[in-house]
Amino acid sequence: MLEGLLAGLYSILSLKMLLVVVGGCLIGTFIGMLPGLGPMSIIAIMIPVAITLGDPEAALVLLAGVYYGAIFGGSTSSILINAPGVAGTVATAFDGYPMTRKGQAGKALTIAAIASFSGGTIGAMLLMVFAPALASVALLFHSAEYFALMVLGLSAIAAFAGKGNITKALMMTILGLMLATVGESALFNQPRFTAGLLDLQGGIGFITLAMAMFALPEALLLILDPSRSKSSGEQQSEISNLRIDRDEARTIAPVIGRQSLMGFLIGVLPGAGATIASFLGYAVERNLARPEEQAEFGEGSIKGLAAPETANNAACTGSFVPLLTLGIPGSGTTAILLGALIALNVTPGPRLMVDAPEIFWGVIMSMYIGNVVLLILNLPLIPYIAKLLTVPRNYLIPFILFFTLMGVYIGQNNATELLILIGLGVLATVFRVAGFPLAPLLIGFILGPMLENNFARSVQLYDGVAFLWERPMTGGILILAVVLIVLPGVRSWLKARREARQAAHDHPEPKPDN
Q1: To pair with 342 at 20 to 30 A between CA atoms, which of 51, 371, 415, 496?
Q2: What are the backbone angles phi and psi of residue 164, rounded to the nearest 5°?
Q3: Among the listed residues 51, 65, 78, 90, the one whose alpha carbon sits nearest the alpha carbon of residue 367
């Protein structure tokens, strides 16, 4: 391993490779800031450019830089205008945008940059040390385990209830599961709930739904309620407040440590990816927080911002484990990277570390360099990025609408998606006014197809539901899901008991006179 690291470091520190790393990070960062485009689209566009480099290592390093650069930069639009740049930064908007509305946009961007850098760097270290072993563990996950993992994700909806009640969060999750059934079933290849429209056979696009839930309602609410626009004095405070103090650093440090590990492990699992890692990271941190801290989630919690930003970047790095060691794509983006590798006559798999160590270790070392480059690029730019907020909010409305509509159309290349966007956006605005949390709907929509498909495969393989107790790993994950469901109620009950005991101690009942 040491020889491989030295060889990778030697190759990546050449002038050509450093320029490739910086170029990939720059392209990825700016594309990630544009709502709706995402890394998959730009990587597909960049493949011909990468191939013309004539060097498989340089080509993969360029595409990898674009990938984690897009995730790194995707938080910007989530934080500033509530329009997620990429799917993996949807959870970033839950607390990032409330911080912006409180006049803490600069601080939110700083925390996002530090958390992204930390998650990506720790993920690269874990990739270096544990890649071969984790590839073997990933192979142990079958359909039954993936089904249990999706149940675990759904069990975390309480974390997204906000100040609303769990019943509303559950209703929104069910609505998300229903929307996920639109289109052709992966198992039976039959269209469902398409109303006879060919454009709906592929289902509703995730970017369409994310924009409809967040960006479009924000623009509509600004139109309906002009008082949401901020004064110039508040805007100036947003730009000047960039630093985090020592107490805030201590608060987010354990969050970054936990979510770097958890996000990396989720990224290792084929098919999971940065989006699921960010949602699960947010839910876990809220459940672990003290009751007084839980009330801050969704209202501008720095823990709620650091958790998804750390987890999604660590998951990006983790997704390279099955790609490089097994030749199995860990996400949709790494599936495109796999196609690029094949086009470059590179065969990923167990022999890659032996046959082409310069590629394997060069990519890992480029992640270290790339994360440093991204931090250097992003931190000095924060004051200039935050200047976007000096523009009065009502003037931002046309830009929000333009990027929302453009992102959805380019991402899907389908005019019907624009009509779906408008319809769902109006519905989401009504939900927000009525106090319904929107995040559970996205959770149900993301996890629904994987839940359905893996459950159906498991039932076919085991001729029933015996897999629930015959596979220990499946049972263990389901038990963890039950714990996540029960834990908030138990903590609330214990808190009520403590308060009642304290009240009885402070105000004892008077003894009756004899």
Answers
A1: 371
A2: -80, 175
A3: 65
